[in-house]
Design a protein that fits this description.
Helix content is about 40%, strand content about 10%. By secondary structure, it is α/β, with parallel strands linked by helices. α11 links the parallel β2 and β3. α10 packs parallel to α11. The protein is extended and about 115 Å long.
Length: about 500
């Protein structure tokens, strides 16, 4: 293009007559729009190949001139066609609306009921419901779902997470029936307590392993781990895993990974089943017996033992001391909403012990005259703090205030390398409707469910709290008695063995 312009501008200019002007105009109208234009004096005249140019023009200048011409054309077109007035646009819009309202759509344009107007795909509500088996109940729809709880608090919003599963609807096809039953029992607190949940999980995993078959072109160590992950995810959806369950699951996956892929399937299953039995016996059963024997030796005749809620290892310790013929009294402090201490008080009373059952509201009077406080544990943190049922920290604080030794009974399987500073960053949030008001209605009488949807009522149902290490006098484990600061040492020993 630059060469053509050079030829044109370099040619000598001749005067033009009226006839020549007509010819130039005719050629200008016949020339296509993309033909090069002379940027000098004769604007709008198409370039001729034989012309030459005296001065050279760069490509950037040509672009600037082209942009200026486009801007001039746009300004000229706007001046020739003035914009319509506001009244005209309003009238046009009203006419279009009236036409849409008056003209009915054709039968071809109207989509069938329940079908998308553009894609034509049928919606979920238009499909026929699946036929249910005899005796099977249909899951509640979104319109008839039960109220799940009170309003949520913003500062603990990270603890709510996904609502707990309350039925087997929507469970994966790979989930074993025993896992389905176990998850529902844990979610409804039929199986409650860290040790009970851990043992039940391992025993159910034995059934899962026995029913497992390695797919073709796969190895058992790799595929069985993935198969167990589906079972674990279902248990998590019913209730968060306890610390002991997490340690046991990590141990089981590590044991599976050490199996030789060339080992026959039945031998590998037998090896895993025996390993699970040994783990339960050594880390939970025998460990509990050792802790109970060590802790019971610290109980003397005439002691008044205070405990909180229900702990299986504390119950075993008190039963062992009673079996040894020692005479002492037990005061069980309990709190809502689970009220687990009632089961402990009934079990100890059936053994023949003198038991006093008290609510946590009377804690300041209950600890008066006590000699020792025995507490169970959900987990022992790496910084020596006790993570246990909500209300444990209050009992330990009240006992420490009047110089009563607080003794924690905990197996090493509950030790963790995590560090916790408060009960807000990490905790388990139970459904707020479990709090209940025992018949009390905050909205209006006669309507028992309206209190759950009160806009000015917020529910906070934490399951655990954190007891500082300075409130704990001693921690008794199967490795012996130690201060809270030695928890990381025991955690490393239990992990390496």
């Amino acid at each position: 293009m630059v060469s053509i312009l050079d030829d044109i501008e370099g040619a000598p200019k001749e005067p033009t007559t009226n006839g020549q002007e007509r010819e130039l105009r005719a050629t200008e109208t016949q020339t296509p729009s993309n033909a090069p234009i002379i940027p000098s004096g004769n604007k709008g005249i198409p370039a001729k190949p034989g012309a030459q140019k005296d001065e050279k023009i760069s490509g950037a200048e040509l672009k600037k001139r082209a942009k200026a011409e486009k801007a001039a054309k746009r300004a000229q077109s706007k001046q020739e066609q003035p914009p319509p007035s506001k009244h005209a646009t309003k009238n046009a819009k009203s006419e279009n609306r009236s036409q849409r309202d008056t003209i009915p759509p054709s039968p071809q344009q109207v989509p069938p009921k329940g079908q998308h107007s553009k894609t034509g795909s049928a919606s979920a509500t238009s499909q026929k419901p699946l036929q249910l088996r005899p005796g099977q109940q249909q899951a509640p729809t979104a319109e008839h779902e039960p109220k799940t709880g009170l309003q949520k608090l913003a500062f603990v919003n990270h603890l709510y997470g996904i609502p707990r599963r309350t039925s087997i609807a929507g469970a994966g096809k790979d989930v074993h029936p025993s896992i389905l039953a176990l998850g529902l029992q844990m979610g409804s607190y039929i199986i409650c307590g860290s040790n009970a949940r851990c043992v039940s999980t391992l025993l159910v995993f034995k059934r899962v392993i026995d029913a497992y078959t390695t797919p073709p072109n796969n190895s058992l160590p790799r595929d069985l781990t993935l198969h167990l992950s589906a079972q674990i995810d279902y248990l998590k959806s019913c209730r968060p895993l306890s610390t002991s369950m997490g340690n046991a699951i990590r141990w089981l996956k590590l044991t599976i990974s050490t199996i030789d892929p060339d080992t026959p399937e039945h031998q590998a299953k037998t090896k895993l089943s025996s390993a699970i039995d040994n783990f339960i016996r050594e880390r939970i059963t025998v460990a509990g017996q050792v802790i109970a024997g060590s802790a019971s030796s610290r109980i003397q005749d005439g002691d008044i033992i205070v405990t909180f809620a229900k702990s299986s290892i504390v119950e075993r310790t008190l039963a062992e001391a009673h079996r040894q013929g020692k005479s002492f009294q037990v005061r069980v402090v309990d709190s809502d909403p689970l009220s687990e201490g009632q089961n402990l008080a009934i079990a100890l009373a059936n053994l023949g012990l003198r038991v006093q059952y008290a609510s946590i509201h009377t804690l300041s009077h209950t600890v008066q005259g006590a000699t020792k406080v025995f507490l169970g544990a959900h987990a022992m943190m790496s910084n020596g703090r006790l993570y246990s049922r909500l209300g444990t920290a209050l009992v330990a604080m009240a006992a420490k205030d009047i110089d009563i030794p607080v003794i924690v009974l905990c197996e090493s399987i509950k030790f963790t390398d995590r560090v916790a500073l408060d009960s807000i960053a990490t905790n388990e949030m139970a459904p707020s409707h479990e709090l209940g008001f025992h018949g009390t209605d905050v909205n209006k009488p006669g309507d028992e469910d309206d209190w759950r949807s009160a806009s000015n009522l917020m529910g906070l149902n934490l399951m655990y709290d954190l007891t500082p290490a300075e409130y704990i006098h001693m921690v008794i484990t199967e490795y012996g008695s130690l201060p809270p600061s030695s928890v990381p040492v025991v955690q490393r020993l239990s992990t390496n063995t």
